[in-house]
Amino acid sequence: MSDKSALTAEDVATMLHVSKSGIYGLIKKNEIDHYKVGRKIRFTEAHVRDYIERSKTAARAAVHPIPTALDESRYFDLSMERRKEAGFIICGQDLILDVLSNYLRMQGVMALRAYIGSYDSLVSLYQGRINVATAHLWDSLTDDYNVPYVRSLLPGIRCAIVNVTYRMQGLYVAKGNPKHIESWQDFARDDIAMINREKGAGSRVLLDENLKLLGLYGSRIKGYENENQSHLTVASAVGRGDADVAVGNEKIARQVENVDFIPLKKERYDLVVKKEDVDTPEVTAMLNILRSGKFQNEFKNIGGYDISDIGKLIVET
To answer: Do you know which Gene3D superfamilies this protein is assigned to (predicted)?
Structure first.
């Protein structure tokens, strides 16, 4: 990707799959560099690369070096290209997918990564814009992960759902938990301010489903409309004291200073492919890698992952 100047806030919002107001929020918090032309705010692609790199540095440090998030060899912007003109696109935001794409490229598969949340990932698979979706979407009615959403968001399409890992989801709170936050009910407290994930993220869905069960409305929760697109960023906001609580996974909490983790739900993180693609060379290679001892050894000593079912077929819809 060549450096370009004069990117607008709207351009950057499209690249990062966040709202335009979210970009101005990053500027206000000094989390993304920019420059001004008169009174207008502008960015370069280097600014965007630096922001994504900072957001992922802690996660990448746990495993052997991985290329930067906007390296053209691995980053795929769904708003800029059509799938057929790109390569084998794996959608999702976990470190394990970055390592998987590296293994695929070593086997000659042009693996690219699209960093969007679970809901939009499944929609993109339905629209034929990606090859592999990933999801960790909890359904309160069935107490199941992902299967109800695949059936709803990919109607009439046969899919294979394969496990990647199990992770513990819960609450990020300040070190020592000074406000004694323990459960979903605490979001209704007047003295609690949260920071939220973007619509469609698995953590956001988990929160919303539990709020629904409690009869609570998100619009009445302080900070509910304050959205960000990564676990690392919301955990960092809690660590800095900009918010009292956020929802995310345990692995990230171990990487951020001044943050404690309250475990609430063991989630299943799965990848989803169309059944008609299961026997293609790319998907076959991907499944073989997931099931290989060499790949699994990458994650055996990293906290926050339960890979006991990695590569296992959960269900065919």
So the answer is: Periplasmic binding protein-like II
Confidence at 299, pLDDT banded by 50, 70, 90:
confident
169-266 adopts what CATH topology? D-Maltodextrin-Binding Protein; domain 2 (3.40.190)
Write out the two tokens for 130.
């990606």
Pairwise CA distance, residues 267 & 265, whole Å: 6
CA distance 184 to 191: 14
Query: Helix or strand or coil: residue 267?
Result: strand
Structure tokens at 108: 């000659």
Per-residue model confidence as pLDDT tens digits over 252-272? 888 888 999 999 999 999 999
DSSP-derived secondary structure for 165-226: EEEEEEEEEETT-TT---SGGGGG-TT--B-EEPTT-HHHHHHHHHHHHHT--GGGSTTTT-
Angle between helix 9-16 and helix 20-28 axes, rounded to 10 deg: 100
Q: Who contacts 187 (Cβ-Cβ below 8 Å, separation ≥6)?
A: 194, 207, 211, 216, 221, 245
Query: Could you give the percent of the chain with pLDDT greater than 90?
Result: 54
Bridge partners of residue 269, in order along the sequence: 165
Q: What is the pTM of this model?
A: 0.72
Give the whole-angstrom CA distance, residue 76 versus residue 116: 10
Strand, coil or helix: 240: helix
Do 107 and 285 touch, CB atoms closer than 8 A?
Answer: yes
